[in-house]
Design goal:
Elements lengths: L5 E3 L6 E4 L10 H4 L1 H10 L1 H8 L6 H12 L6 E8 L4 E10 L6 E11 L10 H6 L2 H8 L12 E5 L1 H4 L3 H16 L10 E3 L2 H15 L13 E5 L3 E6 L3 H6 L4 E6 L2 E11 L3 H9 L14 E4 L8 E6 L2 E6 L5 E6 L7 E6 L2 H12 L14 E5 H8 L9 E4 L1 H11 L9 H15 L7 E4 L2 E2 L2 E2 L2 H12 L2
Parallel strand pairs: 2-10, 3-6, 6-7, 8-17, 12-14, 17-19
Antiparallel strand pairs: 1-2, 3-4, 4-5, 8-9, 9-11, 10-11, 13-14, 15-16, 18-19, 20-21
Helix pairs in contact: 2-4, 3-4, 9-16, 11-15, 12-15, 14-15
Amino acid sequence: MEVRQRKLKSENEDTYEADYRPRFKKGHPGRRYFVVMALLGILFLGYIAISYDLKPVRLGSQAIDTLAFSLNFQKPFYVVVIDAGSTGSRALAFSFHESILGGNLILDHELYTETEPGVSGYADKPKDAAKSLVVLLDKVKSVIPRSEWQHTPLSMRATAGLRLLPGHKAQDILEECKKLFDESGFQVSKNSIAIMEGSDEGIFSWFTVNFLLERFNTYSPGSTVAALDLGGGSTQVTFSPTPAQEKKLDGHIYSVNIFNHNMSIYTHSYLGMGLMAARKAILTHGMNLENPNAKTPIEIRSECVNPIVSTEWSYGGLNYLVKGPVNGTHKLVKTQNFAGGEVDRPIVNFSECLKIIEKYVGKIKVKPEGLKDHEIYAFSYYFDRATEVGLVDPFSGGIIQVSAFLKQAMDACDYPNTDQPFICLDLTYIYVLLRDAFGLEPTTKLFLYKKINGHELSWALGAAFNIIQNGL
């Protein structure tokens, strides 16, 4: 699913066509035994159905595939993708097989493992950046048979963390990681390691969500869902617009071929609008940080932090000492004991913090018109923050309205919490981003999940399909 861009005519902004045409590897073992497997599948269909309790709608295909595996006529193949994000690195090892009936690519299993910080956190120590990936590769090797390593593609794509670093620092990190990959025993190429374009990140995430939800049955805009991915350094909005919506979305439209069906996809990656990048900009609002000293913590006084807070925070290779404002806001709160009375409570001045955040989000001028008309799945930091304040279950996820983020933000800002010193800021930012930048209504529903059918909501699965279909 590599995006090969070809300029099309557009009045205001370049529009591109992306070729997502699946090209499965020829000569897969399952192809050679298609006829034999089909016959054996019919003979043993009843036995397999009882043994594996298969659903009727997929009975035939799953039964034959299962039989092929049991007779060693078919075996899985693997793809490993490392997501080198701004706040951490995640390795995902996927196991696939090609269905004998129909030749569809089936995702069987995946390993998900992560480590912190991300490689961009080693901006001045590129060798250490590569070393941080060793633990991920060791875990991947534990689930993939050694005999398959040389046939298993290994790829790393860096996102906004490296995009925001000076070019030479990012390149030094990539070169050290390439050396590690060359010695890993996995299948690598000169394109195995790279900084990923924001458009790829958005489209790969959108593909992952819709593939796991099985929404590619009709290949129409109405059958697919929108994907909102909030990372540390950037955020992506991706959906398939209706023809009427597409006319209002000048630019950022891609013609995408999904399993031999063409679809128009809108995707926009907002660099600097990820949760950590936005937090840094909001905390340092009004400060001059042109030449900061990387060795000395930078003291920050912020209106978006409770007056009692004093905490250390690191981002982008710099260390900060974050505190509330000098003249913090307080309010009298009635006690709940029998004696009555009032206590003085330090709080965040919500209205002042809101102004700072609205000003920062106001920098976004290109907005995803029509997003609110789609079913919206939001993940990454959207999900994380929602679970931290009890909006959705951390294991099963859930559905909320946009207004729920506002309510939780106001509650968080009204209560001193040194365990979560940035929760007021983060929740307020998420609400303003959804409302002002993305045009969502307070009543707009958000489907918040970390996994679907046991698989991670990550752009890595889309990237894995790209590797299978187009090569490294």
